[in-house]
Amino acid sequence: MKEFPEFMKNPVNRIKQSSQYTKDIEGFVYDGKDGSQIAFWTCFEDRNSNEHFHDFDEYLVCVYGQYNVHINGNTVILKPGDELLIPAGVPHRGNCIAGTRTIHAFGGKRAERETD
């Protein structure tokens, strides 16, 4: 598959346009009752994210393409099927190639919807 299924891209779950969603990346978010979130992102162009950290754990899996995570002085290259757990409080940044799709699970609230 080269895209997430349509039911996962319902416009009411689209991530608000900000540093998390711009013209070159599209995301959709779903909330857990416990305050956790799962987000699905598609990068349409090569993209870099700035170094940041979260107050909660982040789990990510590369579905398609390649996502590189720079963490603890190392670069972890994620290809389809590869996964990574980023502990709370650990600074990290990433970059991906155009067409990359990733799924991220957050132990807290990371993203807001356009409709929030």
Written description of the protein model:
- The protein is an all-beta fold.
- The chain has one domain: Jelly Rolls (Sandwich).
- It is 0% helix and 45% strand.
- It has no helices and nine strands.
- The strands form two sheets. Strands 1-2-9-4-7 form a five-stranded antiparallel β-sheet, with no helix packed on it.
- A hairpin with a 5-residue loop joins strand 1 and strand 2.
- It is globular, with a radius of gyration of 13 Å.
- The model has no long low-confidence stretch (mean pLDDT 92).
Number of H/I helices: 0
Mean pLDDT rating: 92
The biggest sheet amounts to:
5 strands, antiparallel
CATH architecture: Sandwich
Strands in their spatial order, largest beta sheet: 1-2-9-4-7
- Name the helix and strand elements from N-terminus to C-terminus, one letter apiece: EEEEEEEEE
CATH superfamily (homologous) name: Jelly Rolls
Overall, the morphology is: globular
Which class do the helix and strand fractions yield?
mainly beta
Topology, number of strands: 9
The fraction of residues in strands falls at 35-45%
The percent of residues in helical segments reads under 10%
CATH topology: Jelly Rolls
Number of domains: 1
The end-to-end distance, rounded to whole angstroms, is 30 Å
